[in-house]
Write a structure and sequence with these properties.
Keywords: Lipid metabolism, Methyltransferase, S-adenosyl-L-methionine, Transferase. The protein is α/β, with parallel strands linked by helices and 429 residues long. It has 17 helices and eleven strands.
């Protein structure tokens, strides 16, 4: 009898305390649930074992990456529906032992164990990495950056498009991704008030887009630093192709090892998420020490929402295991406070949350359009990681669960307090 899907929906509903908002198709071909809803495809019983051994986000992610689970229909709609469901109801806020005191939870778990067919946990997918306890040493940071960015430049070209900018774009109605990324780079340059002949340090320079834009369009001399060998090779070729080798230097170097200041300006675009809570003040102090008095820092960084208990930093289990090992997000207020503790004066904060949701949706569309080639380049598991990560992140930005901010800070003159900022600061608009 083909009845796995209705049984699954019933048991999951017991765990959640509410009906599963998706339609389910099980390995036996049965289906159950709202006819118009996206379909959660449970390809095999192994998916249940993954969820039983790791209830919550990590178990779901493992099943997705391994191909044990899939979604048919609108992926964004499915993720949006699931984001309103607290899967951790199976564990309870007090932990799995307390949750299992609930008779309904115990009955549902027993039912899922019977359906799973085996008590043994499957091995995690090969794409999963082990955490390094967020030490953020030079060695652990190099390893984490390599895991994320050395996937292959050809793969990133599929996802990011010709701009090769891997951070939130700056959109106008009806614009293209390339236009929006150009406008973001130009916005950063205007906020930094770059002038010909000045020195710019681009921390976490990626594939060289900011360095090339600033040197070509604003006449500055740029040092770009990255920990990724593949990024550096790509960026150096772009610099050479643009005829900018006399103005742009790309280094494989930790920002903590930059010792040739002072610089007139520093851009840090989508890099500070890798720094870590324990190292953030050091990061701010190092950058402040590399700036001339009156020098500006533009810090473009994803932020999470504050928690009741800020004694420890929240880490997303899926992203930590598959996407950004050792990455940590902080509230924007924490970032501002740390910059000010390091001696900066924060002059402007601009939230770009909706812009990142739009950017991620374009990246997902690029990946889906080039899916076959992406799978050939990186493997099906890695491609599934990226599709889930970017689509789920788009939903999180849209639901205001996370944000992204550009923080403009200045190193004022120690003797006079002069900032060099105009009286009407938003001259870049």
């Amino acid at each position: 009898m083909q009845d796995a899907a209705p049984r699954l929906r019933s048991l999951v509903g017991q765990l959640l305390g509410a009906p599963l908002p998706l339609r389910v198709r099980a390995w036996d071909g049965s289906e159950a649930g709202p006819p118009a809803a996206p379909v959660l495809v449970v390809h095999n019983r192994r998916a249940l074992r993954r969820l039983l051994w790791k209830p919550g986000e990590l178990g779901l992610a493992r099943a997705w990456v391994a191909g044990d689970l899939g979604i048919e229909g609108d992926l964004y709609s499915a993720l949006d529906l699931l984001s309103g469901v607290v899967w951790e109801r199976a564990e309870d806020a007090r932990g799995p032992v307390a949750a299992l005191r609930d008779p309904e939870v115990r009955a549902a778990v027993r039912g899922l164990v019977r359906m799973a067919g085996s008590p043994l946990p499957p091995a995690p997918p090969a794409e999963e990495v082990r955490r390094s306890r967020h030490l953020h040493t030079r060695r652990s940071d190099r390893r984490a950056i390599s895991h994320h960015y050395d996937v292959g430049n050809d793969f990133y070209e599929i996802v990011l498009g010709p701009s090769m900018v891997y951070s939130c774009a700056y959109w106008e109605e009806g614009g293209t991704l390339e236009e929006a990324q150009h406008d973001k780079l130009e916005l950063v340059c205007r906020k930094l008030a770059l002038k010909p002949g000045q020195r710019l340090l681009d921390v976490g320079c990626g594939w060289g887009s900011m360095a090339v834009h600033a040197a070509r369009d604003h006449g500055v001399r740029v040092v770009g630093v990255t920990l990724s060998q593949e990024q550096a090779a790509y960026a150096r070729k772009r610099v050479a192709d643009e005829g900018l080798t006399d103005r742009v230097e790309i280094r494989v170097q930790d920002y903590r090892d930059v010792a040739d200041g002072p610089y007139d300006a520093i851009s840090s675009i989508g890099m500070a998420e890798h720094v870590g809570a324990e190292r953030y003040l050091e990061y701010a102090e190092v950058l402040g020490g590399l700036l001339d008095p009156g020098g500006r820092l533009l810090n473009h960084q994803i932020a999470r929402r504050p928690q009741r208990d800020e004694s420890s930093y929240a880490v997303d289990a899926f992203i930590d295991a598959y996407v950004f090992p050792d990455g940590e997000l902080a509230p924007v207020g924490t970032t501002v406070a740390q910059l000010e503790r390091a001696g900066f004066e924060v002059r402007d904060v601009e939230a770009l949350r909706e812009h990142y949701a739009l950017t991620l949706r374009r990246w997902v569309a690029n990946l889906e359009a080039g899916w076959s080639r992406a799978v050939r380049l990186t493997g099906a598991g890695r491609a599934r990681v990226w599709r889930l990560y970017m689509a789920a992140s788009a939903v999180a930005f849209e639901r205001n669960q996370i944000g992204v901010n550009q923080v403009l800070a200045v190193r004022t003159s120690g003797g006079t307090g002069a900032s060099g900022m105009p009286l009407r600061a938003r001259t870049w608009n």
